[in-house]
Amino acid sequence: MSRKSKALLLGALLVAVSFLIWKFSFLMLGARVLLTTVEEGWLKHEKGAKAVFANTEIVLTAPIEGKLVPVQEKEGQRFRKGEMLATLYPTGVDISRSVKETAVNAPISGLFYRSLDNVEQVLTPENLMKLELNNLLSQAERELTEKLAETAKQVGTSPKKSSFKKYEPLGKIVNNLSPTWMFIYLESGTNIRPDQTASFIIDGEEYCGRVMKISDRPRGAVVCFTQFIDGTVENRIQDIVWYYKAASKGVLVPLSSLLRLGEEVIVYVEEGGIVELRNVELIDANDHWACVKGLAEGVRVVVNPRPGMERTKLS
Fold first, then answer.
1. CA-based angle 267:273:275, to the nearest 5?
2. If DSSP codes are grouped into helix, strand and coil, which group holds residue 141?
3. Which residues pair with 300 in a beta bridge?
4. Cα separation of 27 and 300, whole Å?
5. CA–CA separation, 119 and 117 (whole Å)
6. Cβ(269)–Cβ(314) under 8 Å?
7. What is the rounded average pLDDT of the residues 116-131?
8. Nearest partner of 276 among 315, 254, 305, 253, judged by Cα
9. Are 287 and 281 in contact (CB under 8 A)?
10. Beta-sheet pairing, 181-185 with 219-225
11. Structural domain boundaries in the chain
């Protein structure tokens, strides 16, 4: 065989091998394509954060030494101003003074709790605005941690305390007509400003509040809500969700499904078992999803696209 024939044969073999590799790659690509059905909805911008809550609370003290008998055993019952919360029956040295049973009345309208967490006069709306927050919050969290450990030791063994010395704290009234306040811990670089209105998800419910103060140490913000928030008395420290930007409405697609061709934004869709290219308009995006125009609800888009895959047959 001449050199020329050998060269032609080698060239033909290279062409055949290249074609087989190209065909195999497209077959494998079709087998690996991941699809999802798009729907219309709201694109939300949210971040998880730690929050510490403060309410308007008044600590009640025993006017005499005695045994406390509450009107209601259930925590968080609402009473009007002047209504009787409990009765103190005198014990100890007060008995010799012929002191009669004494009523404990509500100084304001609100929710009565016998349980105290020792931060009622530390975590207040006024302190969140006026005091240095790093020391204030450190003290509050330390007190709450100690109280939680103490309560855990008593579970199943000790009933609620019923005997009190004179002037000893015996409970508190929480003004549930006053708004709840909060300090929210934020990451550095978070864009938030005073007087900004923000939305939060707390224990599964959405609430709106106004940013009253920005803190650098610790990094975060003081927020005043438009209402009292149930559950913030019992659980002062909670993990919440912050909606840091207004939601956008449109067709939602995985962020990974978008490709940019110059200034154009495209997605690949499945039509009749074939991959087709579609131009879309990007409205908004977060870390995982994009909100677009130009796609109909119910279309299946390619989640793991590659440039040039249009007209690929799907297996």
1. 25
2. helix
3. 37
4. 20
5. 6
6. no
7. 96
8. 305
9. no
10. antiparallel
11. 57-115+160-176
Mean pLDDT of 205-230: 96
Tokens of 220: 């975060």
- Residue partners of 310: CB distance under 8 A and separation at least 6: 268, 275, 276, 277
Which H or E run includes 303? Answer: none
Question: For the chain, first and last CA: distance in Å?
Answer: 44
Pairing of strands 110-113, 169-174: antiparallel
CATH class of 57-115+160-176: mainly beta
Per-residue pLDDT at 22: 47
Contact (CB, 8 A) for 42 and 283: no
How confident is the model over 28-45, as pLDDT tens digits?
Answer: 444 589 999 999 999 999
Task: Give the alpha-carbon dihedral of 175, 181, 183, 186, to 10 degrees.
Answer: 140
Rounded to whole angstroms, the Cα distance separating 41 from 48 reads 21
| Spatial contact of 83 and 274, defined as CB atoms under 8 Å apart | no
- In the predicted structure, residue 208 carries a pLDDT above the cut 90: yes
The predicted model gives 3-13 an average pLDDT of 54
Give the residue, 148 or 293, on which the prediction is more confident. Answer: 293
Q: Which long-range contacts (CB under 8 A, 24 or more apart) does 157-163 make?
A: 160/114, 160/115, 161/114, 162/67, 162/68, 162/69, 163/66, 163/67, 163/68, 163/91
